[in-house]
Amino acid sequence: MKKSISLISLFVLVVITGCTLDHDPDDDYLHDHSVEVEGSEMRQLTVEQVADLWEIDSQKLLDKIVEEFNLKGDYTPETVVDVMRLEYKFSPAIVKDIAEEIKTGIEI
Questions:
Q1: Which of 1, 18, 22, 45 could form a disulfide bond with 49, CB atoms 3.0-4.6 angstroms apart?
Q2: Which of 54, 104, 106, 108 is nearest to 77 (CA)?
Q3: For 46, which DSSP code?
Q4: What is the CA radius of gyration of the chain?
Q5: CB–CB of 96/42 below 8 Å?
Q6: Residues ≥6 apart with Cβ < 8 Å to 50
Q7: Which of 102, 97, 107, 108 is nearest to 39 (CA)?
Q8: What would the pLDDT profile of 54-76 be if each residue is shown by its tens digit?
Q9: Contact at 8 Å (CB) between 61 and 99?
């Protein structure tokens, strides 16, 4: 009897959870990334450290970030993401998206 109740409860939980986890695919903050890192941690990393996490070219990542936000500063791969955010307050999640796009070749 307990097994039946447990199985039914589990089934109901799976059905309810499946219904509530639907999300808008255009929501940049819900994308799965090959690297899991919090935004607060991302802000403290250099562009090169971010690139190393994704195993991508740091200069290419830097160029894409500068292009995406039309940044005018003199940045290098050794620049900390938070320093770049002083010029334009972008979300670190977007840097994760850019890194993922470079790694996979698939636009997020």
A1: 45
A2: 54
A3: B
A4: 19
A5: yes
A6: 42, 58, 61, 81, 95, 99
A7: 97
A8: 999 999 999 999 999 999 999 99
A9: yes
Instruction: Name the token pair of 81.
Output: 């993401």
Whose structure tokens read 């639907």?
22
**What's the chain's length in residues?**
108
Q: Compute the distance between CA of residue 46 and CA of residue 86 in angstroms, rounded to an integer.
A: 14
Neighbour count for residue 42 (Cβ, 10 Å):
21
Domain-wise residue ranges, the chain: 2-104
The DSSP 8-state label assigned to residue 80 in this structure reads B
pTM here is 0.70
Q: Is the pLDDT of residue 15 over 50?
A: no
Q: Which amino acid would we find at residue 48? A: E
Distance from C-alpha of 68 to C-alpha of 81, rounded to nearest angstrom: 14
